[in-house]
Amino acid sequence: MPNNKLVIKVTAGAEAPERCSQAFTVAAVAAASGVEVSLWLTGESSWFALPGRAAEFSLPHAAPLPDLIESIQGAGGRITLCTQCATRRDITEKDVLEGVRIAGAQVFVQEIMGDGVQALVY
Hints:
- InterPro entries: DsrEFH-like, Sulphur_relay_DsrE/F-like.
- It is a single chain.
- This protein is of the alpha/beta class.
- 33% of the residues lie in helices and 21% in strands.
- Helix 1 runs parallel beside helix 2.
């Protein structure tokens, strides 16, 4: 496979459920396929970094977000919450799901500039 890392930035949350679900689904499928996945939660998707919030999300005929998150992390994928987005929502490291890190634009740029990286924004 020529590209060995996929970085996905999801900006959509419950207000754009199809776009949101698509980002998580693509991340989970890629991770299950052996691709190194980095999923960035920004904007309204930031809320899904909190325990219980993904369970509140519903979209007919779509996999539940908690299952997709578990699949991503279980396959070694990384989930990152944007620093500025977290700050605007008063979310701290102690608030987020286990395994979710908070990082900023510098880390995002480092990730997308690596060799063999593909980046998607939803």
